[in-house]
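[audit] Reproducing an earlier prediction to check determinism. Same input, same settings, fresh worker. If the C-alpha cells differ from the archived copy the diff job will pick it up downstream; this log only records the rerun itself.
[audit] input (112 residues):
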Amino acid sequence: MQRIDLHELSVRESERVEWKLNVASIDGIVCTAVAFANDFSNLGGGYIVCGAEETKDAAGFQKVTFLGLSANRFKEVENKFLADCRDHVDPPIVQFVEEIRQRTRRSEYWYS
C-alpha cells in the first residue's frame, strides 16, 4: 500500500478527507467509514485522520494542525473501530489502519 502524505491531504479541501481531533465518538468514525465505503460519487473511498484539527487560516483557507493521539488512545480507538466495523457493519467493509508517527505523538488514518 502506498504511504499517505498527510501534508498533501491537508493542503487541499476534499470530500474524501475527514479530520478528527479528539475522537470523542468512535461510532462517528464508523459512520464516516461506511459513508466513504458507499461512495455514490465514485471518488474511491476516503480518509479519516484522527489526531488532527481542521481550522481556517487568516485568509479563510483550510489549515490542519496535527496534534496526534497518545499511544494508549491510539490503540483504544483502533481496536474499537475495527471491532465495531467487524461486528456491526453489513456487508463488511475493507478498512486499512495506519499509524503515522510524528515526534512523540501519533496520528492515524483509515481508508475505506
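[audit] rerun output stored. Observation attached for the diff report: Strands lie at 17-20, 47-50, 52-56, 62-66, 96-102, 105-111.
[audit] end
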